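Predict the 3D structure for this chain.
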Amino acid sequence: MSLAPFPDLNAALTDCDGAERSRVRVPIWEALALAIITIILSRGLVRIPKAIPNPAPGMAAVINFAIVTNTARAAQGGAVCPVYLSGYRAATGSAMFEVTDHIGDSGGPRYLTSRGERAPSGWVTDMDTCDEEARNAEAARRGVSTKDLQCDEYPFASTWEGGEEHKDWVSLRLVLARHNSVQGGTLSGFLRKCGLNQGDRFKVETWNGITKYYTDESKTRECP
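Done. Predicted structure below.
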């Protein structure tokens, strides 16, 4: 399948560490520019509007006499989303590509909201995709035991977009249990390291490399 393209795949990606990387950092040249603009404004030489809507990413905009980058503007409004980049393998090297393929194929939402805990998943065994008959057929097709298979859910059961209450649109797929276990570990690590609590938003992306997650300003996405 063709996975969603992602920029800077060759760049070093740093795992997010909560508030430290979500702080707004203003480059020195912007601070100097702010000082100059403040002097100009204080002398009444130039009048600048108090708000410039939707500044282009990476470009400075003068808002209420302060220079704020697009990322900083989003951070002030609490709209910067940590990104969970689901890959074909975890950092340990363990495979999880069956789950990543499922995310890519599902057509489900890519902006999700943390529940703060995982919702019960017992309901999936009553669905045609993951019931006993489906498991037996898939196990026979693969030549594995039914114990080697698990029912993967997307959106994740740990988000408000997933779970039994949304079973009419949650995508289910039987995948190798070890892939599901590995992916679950990376997702838990992402939620923990990024300090995501109930109601916090994040974005899901897929690619064919190693699973990453981060919030540093150069690689953020904004929630709609």
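Residues 1-26, 46-78 have pLDDT under 50 and may be disordered.
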